[in-house]
Amino acid sequence: EIKECDWSSDVCSSDLINQSINVVQWSRRCMKKLYLIVAMFAIFFSGLSAQQKDDKGIYLTAEKMPAIKGGMASIGKKVRYPKIAKEMGIQGVVYVGFVVTSEGKVSEPKILRSLAKPLDAEALRLITEDVKFTPGYYQGNAVPVRMVLPIRFRL
Question: How far apart are CA 97 and CA 62, in angstroms?
């Protein structure tokens, strides 16, 4: 039961003050428990995400993800913009999905989001022929990792 407080006379009952203190203490205890639960949840699922595999045993994430040798800037230097796409003024992003093997080679490349046939073909050529990767690692071992790479075509 919450009691009324006479604010005009600056007189509050001690019961009201005690109730307020109890509510604050209860809130703090609940927040501490909530933080603990969130922290445990984050730790548990971060460990699981580091070892998620698809049905073929290919990792979806790894402790150390595969990296492009030379970085993303190296891709831009190797793009051969198709003549017809230039003439038509086509630009945008092609998303390519693939697997980086434990040797750092690309396998199973496929277009996940198409822009135009000539640009799709160029994106596949870049991924399979020109771009080199360092492999992904899990627990110190090189492992195959599934990746998606956006290839931006800009005139």
Answer: 16
**pTM score above 0.70:** no
Whole-number Å distance between alpha carbons of 46 and 24: 33
Close Cβ partners of 133 (under 8 Å, ≥ 6 residues apart): 66, 67, 68, 69, 100, 104, 105, 106
Beta-carbon contacts of residue 77 (< 8 Å; ≥ 6 apart): none
Taking the C-alpha atoms of residue 96 and residue 111, their distance in angstroms, rounded to an integer, is 5
- pLDDT tens sequence across 23-79: 666 566 666 666 667 766 666 665 554 458 888 889 999 999 999 998 888 888 889
